[in-house]
Amino acid sequence: MKFLITIVPLVLGVCTFNSHAGQFVDETKVNLTAKNYFFTRDYKKESAYPAARDWAQGFIFKAQSGFTDGKIGFGIDALGLVGINLLGKNTHYATANVLPVNQNNERPHTTGEFRLTAKAKMSETTLQAGTLTPMFPVLFSSPTRLFQQNYRGTQIKSNEIKNLTLNAIYVDRVNQRDSTNFEYLQLANPNGRFESAAISSRLHMLGGEYKVNNHYSVQFYNSILHDIYQQNYLDVKSKIPLLEGNLNTNVRLFLSKDNGGALAGTIDNQHFSGSLGFTQNNHTFTVGYMQSFGDSALPTLSGTEPYVTIDSMSADFINQDEKVYMLRYDYDFKDTSLNGFKIMTRYTNGYDINLPQFHKDNFKQNSWDIDLNYKVQSGILNGLNLRARYMKYRNNMPTIGMAFRPDDEIRISSEYTWAF
């Protein structure tokens, strides 16, 4: 807690240093989020550890200034993170990306970091430099653990043209969710999909989103992870009124190939994913399909999740040649006595998986996910968000050396934010 006591007055002082700074102060937003996060994963096949388990309390402090007056406005944002280990000496294997872990599988009692981002704005164009949390299809800062992944770099966002948002970004380091240090960017290599988990000194991205009208939108992005891979992404979404409800479609296409020195070997992948959903009143039914083409799996950055239409909590479904189908049902208890409560259940099945290192192409995997979410709607705890997630994952892949093994997984979290 000493970390919070130090940074809160510091950032408040930065944001209010000058009562004549106009919008810099007037538009400043400061908030503190308390997040409690429990994660357990019980393995169903032989493993050095029978389970992976972590429980931590996190505090997330954010201060976002406005901009100074003038044709070009300047501002600064601050991010402070504090994590507290609630399991003490943990004899279980460390879960991925919750708390820092040393070579002896030990977590620190407390961990923390403090980051700054400078920014400038002219008209409808904003420049940021420093710590970034990009949420783009080809550069996605994963928020699915105690803390969100962040990057070091520069980002430009422009809304000068109506209905069109353009984004350009350059990053050279990543701060993973279970780390307090910046490190080189790395290719994710679960199950030995590529020749190596190669590292790169930089990634740059350019693209944008165009809102055609209230029913259709299109995204296109291009990114290059230097000397490893280059990737194009196309996304088309629609939301069309139908039978007193809405028909929702989403098609996503990744085109990837190796770049420059090809440090991870040959990368050649064309990945299609699509979903079709129908929402009426409180119900949403969704079906989805994905297929991977080419001579490799879909490449992604280490520590994040692939931005495809079918997701799973404990594994991904983007192996070489893999075909995937998904069935999903969501219910929102809005306008009922349980307003604020939501439930999701999903079944995902992947087959015809090619794992070149085993010289076989008929592996398969499946998962059953349940997600329960409740947000308090009124009273002293108004805004408190409670979430419980259960996942049952199975595959017929070899156990040794595999990132994804059959398991049962539970995640429980609570989150509450104070705005100052």
The major beta sheet can be summarized as: 18 strands, antiparallel, barrel
Tell me the fraction of residues in β-strands, as a range: over 45%
State the assembly state of the protein chains. Answer: single chain
* Category from helices, strands and their pairing: mainly beta
Helix-strand pattern: HHEEEEEEEEEEEEEEEEEEEEEE
Number of helices: 2
N/C terminus separation:
19 Å
Question: Mean of residue pLDDT?
Answer: 91
Tell me the radius of gyration.
22 Å
Number of strands: 22
Shape: globular
Low-confidence stretches: 1-20
Helix content: under 10%
Give an account of the 3D structure.
It contains two helices and 22 strands. The chain has helices at residues 2-15, 23-26, and strands at 29-43, 51-64, 72-85, 110-122, 125-132, 135-136, 139-140, 150-158, 164-175, 185-186, 199-200, 203-211, 216-225, 229-242, 245-258, 268-280, 283-294, 323-332, 341-355, 360-375, 385-395, 407-419. It has an 18-stranded antiparallel barrel. The protein has a two-stranded antiparallel sheet with strand order 6-7. Strand 18 and strand 19 form a beta hairpin. Mean pLDDT is 91; it is low at 1-20.
What is the strand and helix layout of this fold?
Layout: H1 2-15, H2 23-26, E1 29-43, E2 51-64, E3 72-85, E4 110-122, E5 125-132, E6 135-136, E7 139-140, E8 150-158, E9 164-175, E10 185-186, E11 199-200, E12 203-211, E13 216-225, E14 229-242, E15 245-258, E16 268-280, E17 283-294, E18 323-332, E19 341-355, E20 360-375, E21 385-395, E22 407-419
Antiparallel strand pairs: 1-2, 1-22, 2-3, 3-4, 4-5, 5-8, 6-7, 8-9, 9-12, 10-11, 12-13, 13-14, 14-15, 15-16, 16-17, 17-18, 18-19, 19-20, 20-21, 21-22
